[in-house]
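Support request from a user on the community tier.

User writes: "When I paste my structure tokens into the form, the page sometimes reloads and wipes my input. The last time it worked, I copied everything first. Here is what I submitted, just in case something in the input itself triggers the reload:"
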């Protein structure tokens, strides 16, 4: 297991570079900045650089999701490809599951939903929900940004506290 972790670390730092590795990792759905910040901490990035690259990377997909997701889902639901239809229905069900609670609080609902540092509560899903409730683009973008920044602070404090604790005992 240790050899596999070392191989992944060598690939990220050698091929991508630590900063780009964190940036790209934070763009991946479900992983997002919740996985990118612990990765950057483990790779030895200073906390402020890690935070900055993770937040920026996590926000890159947001405007595209807000602008195009409804059209993409509608196209997928009409597709002849059963996999596309199922995936679109799954996405809509995921968004609808949290829609009522988030729509009730709109800006703060999306912000809080994105800020909770758990898988499937990040910027991707928050943007999807904001788009399905037809939230104003700039309002949704700002709401997601604030949520991502809050989640980043939580993850940075947690990650660097853990790293500091382990280095204290080493």
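"...and here is what came back when it finally went through:"
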């Amino acid at each position: 297991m240790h050899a596999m972790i070392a191989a992944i670390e060598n690939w990220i730092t050698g091929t991508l570079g630590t900063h780009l590795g964190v940036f790209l990792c934070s763009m991946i759905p479900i992983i997002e900045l919740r996985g990118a910040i612990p990765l950057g901490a483990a790779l030895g990035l200073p906390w402020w650089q890690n935070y900055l690259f993770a937040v920026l990377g996590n926000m890159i997909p947001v405007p595209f999701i807000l602008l195009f997701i409804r059209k993409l889902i509608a196209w997928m639901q009409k597709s002849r490809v059963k996999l596309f239809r199922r995936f679109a229905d799954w996405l809509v069900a995921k968004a609808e599951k949290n829609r009522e609670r988030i729509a009730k609080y709109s800006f703060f609902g999306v912000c809080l939903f994105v800020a909770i540092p758990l898988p499937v509560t990040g910027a991707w899903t928050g943007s999807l929900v904001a788009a399905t409730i037809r939230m104003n683009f700039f309002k949704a973008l700002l709401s997601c940004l604030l949520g991502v920044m809050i989640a980043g602070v939580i993850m940075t404090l947690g990650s660097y506290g853990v790293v500091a604790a382990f280095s204290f005992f080493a």
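Agent notes: The reload is a front-end session timeout and is unrelated to the input. Residues 82-115 form the longest helix (34 residues). The helical segments are 2-16, 18-25, 32-42, 47-59, 61-78, 82-115, 123-132, 137-169. Escalated to web team.
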